[in-house]
Design brief:
The chain is mainly β and about 375 residues long. Helices cover about 15% and strands about 35% of the residues. The protein has helices spanning about 85-95, 155-170, 185-195, 250-255, 285-295, and strands at about 5, 25-30, 40, 50-55, 60-65, 75-85, 100-105, 110-115, 125-135, 140, 150, 175, 180-185, 200, 205, 220-225, 245-250, 260-265, 275-280, 295, 305-310, 315-320, 325-330, 330-335, 335-340. Strand 18 (about 260-265) and strand 19 form a beta hairpin. It is elongated. The two termini are about 40 Å apart. The model is unreliable at about 1-35 and about 85-100 (pLDDT under 50).
Length: about 375
């Protein structure tokens, strides 16, 4: 077979900050028995002691040490970046079909940035070569460096604010509500009474929603719903989570002594969308967690869930056109509300437990991974 090489270069100078416009993705397909025009020369220094720093959800900085010998011949760096699978498959890929990012040799550390090849909260392996471009356009390269591993970060407040702004566009008009509610099976409520002293306990949020959400697998809370039916103003009688429902007056959970945060915006390959909000008592551990990671909403004025006072009475409204999932971060005693069986159906197809976000939806995705 004949060796094949496809190379695409884009250059905008030699600044160490590289983005999608000045990175080039190079796919080099090499056959072991044929010379593809890329020769390995030990004279070029091999990168070692690789360091990854300043990691975000779609970028990182990389630097390394190398011997000074032939350093002045280096014109480019090849960076082989792969989602982590297993070490054997990575070694095979480095040897036979490497996918490389190519950059001009610039002062280190350099920034690698690109949402098209970096996803949030994802483990990667990386290895580096130094290269010298020849007059005929081919390269001589060093040996590969050691392979190191790192994990990209969660969405920052900046990214979550972008999601928030997208969610605001489709939130729709506000409808009144009076209660928060939580559906489960009868055994669940029996267990709460017998094993937890009648108090609902916070648990770690699952991995549903955006892959980069900083609350998934980290924030502890209790899920509640608050959406009402348009024609009745009351909670729907159907539920995907169980035939028994705990209802609690809205003011018991959402009041001037709590803070409200935006947590996520997603869909599951469906026309309707979900917004996750977090209610945390002021000064609680959940409140401190959210302050560092989530955009805070004005409880009296926002597009999703509001709490205002009218004639000395607390009045609550929720967005009509999104399904709200509300996480309350403290324990809740069942004696504060009522538990009763619903008359509707259990619609399992609407469950969001560990649901994966649709990465192709233009309504609820931002350009920093999914």
């Amino acid at each position: 077979p004949i060796g094949f090489k496809l190379t695409v270069y884009v250059s905008r100078g030699s600044h160490p900050e590289y983005d999608l416009q000045n990175w080039a993705l190079v796919l080099l397909l090499r056959n072991k028995s044929q010379d593809s025009g890329i020769a390995e020369m030990e004279e070029l220094p091999v990168p070692h002691n690789i360091k990854i720093s300043n990691i975000t959800c779609d970028s990182f900085k990389i630097s390394w040490d190398m011997d000074s010998k032939s350093k002045d011949r280096i014109t480019h760096y090849f960076i082989d970046l792969n989602k982590k699978e297993n070490k054997n498959s990575n070694k095979f890929k480095h040897k036979d079909v490497p996918t490389k990012l190519v950059a001009k040799a610039v002062p280190l550390p350099m920034t690698v940035r690109g949402h098209w090849f970096l996803s949030p909260r994802t483990e990667y392996t990386v290895a580096v070569q130094t290269a010298s471009k020849q007059v005929d356009g081919d390269y001589v390269v060093s040996e590969w460096s050691e392979i190191i591993e790192f994990c990209t970060a969660d969405y920052s407040k900046v990214h979550l604010t972008q999601l928030l702004e997208k969610a605001e566009v489709i939130a729709g008009r506000m409808l009144k509500l009076s209660v928060f509610y939580r559906n489960q099976h009868k055994d669940y409520f029996d267990y709460i009474r017998e094993q937890h002293g009648n108090a609902l306990q916070p648990s770690v949020k699952d991995n549903s929603g955006s892959h980069g959400s900083p609350i998934s697998g980290k924030l502890e809370g209790i899920f509640f719903s608050c959406n009402t039916e348009f024609n009745t103003g009351k909670p729907p009688q159907d539920s995907p989570y169980g035939r028994y429902r705990f209802e609690i007056a809205a003011e018991k959970l959402f009041n001037p002594n709590t803070n409200l945060y935006f947590g996520d915006f997603y869909c599951m390959y469906t026309a309707y969308h979900y917004v996750i909000l977090v209610i945390a008592p002021v000064g609680s551990p959940g409140d401190e967690f959210c302050k560092q990671r989530l955009p805070q909403l004005n409880s009296k004025e926002n597009k999703f869930l509001t709490c205002t006072e009218e004639d000395g009475i607390m009045v609550y409204h929720h967005a009509q056109d999104v399904i709200l999932e509300v996480i309350y971060t403290d324990p809740v005693d069942l004696s504060l509300g009522t538990v009763a069986e619903i008359t509707g159906h259990q619609l399992m197809s609407l469950s969001t437990a560990n649901a994966k976000k649709d990465p192709s939806c233009k309504t609820c995705n931002i350009s920093v991974g999914r």
